[in-house]
Design goal:
- The chain has helices at about 5-15, 25-30, 35-50, 55-65, 80-95, and strands spanning about 65-70, 100-105, 110-120, 125-135, 140-145.
- The protein has about 160 residues and is of the alpha+beta class.
- The chain has a 5-stranded mixed beta sheet with strand order 1-5-4-3-2.
């Protein structure tokens, strides 16, 4: 991986993991040009606001397309409204949960995010793989794969 790409990944992760919950300004205040880097910034800004900053409704209003499609099987209708409500309820049920971005990869309109979800302080983390598709600088689709903590860790390599 090129040094520039590593710095971008590290910089984005550092912004999300920092104690400050300041949204990533570049995605919301700068005109989006549809590049892979702009798409990555939009997804990271959404993630930062919705999950790290615990403001899913505001983040959906800002970053999701009106015709957003959710593929998560836990979201009843797969709509934008249902997905935002799902996240609000999850945050209400698990108020001390923490979401962290481990790495991102972009390919055209697709942004792949590998994350760590810890439901409560001291709880073992879940591994999350989120896939976002963007269209016209808005998130238009989302898929995820959620892996619970393993009962037995046979592999010495971390999932993160």
């Amino acid at each position: 991986m090129a040094k520039t790409s590593r710095r971008l990944f590290a910089g984005a992760a550092a912004m999300l993991l920092a104690p400050s919950l300041t949204p990533i300004a570049s995605a919301s205040t700068r005109a989006c040009d549809g590049t892979e880097e702009a798409n990555r910034n939009i997804v990271l800004a959404f993630y930062n606001e919705a999950l790290v900053g615990l403001q899913p409704r505001r983040a959906f209003d800002r970053y999701m397309a009106p015709d957003f499609i959710e593929h998560k099987p836990d979201v009843s209708s797969g709509s934008r409204e249902a997905a935002a409500t799902f996240l609000e309820q999850l945050i209400a049920e698990l108020p001390q949960a923490r979401w962290e971005v481990v790495r991102t990869i972009t390919e055209g309109q697709m942004v792949f995010l590998h994350g760590r979800f810890t439901p409560a302080p001291g709880a073992p983390p879940y591994a999350i793989a989120d896939v976002f598709r963007l269209n016209n600088c808005k998130i238009s689709e989302h898929w995820d794969v959620v892996a619970p903590p393993p009962a037995v860790q046979r592999n010495p390599n971390s999932r993160f």
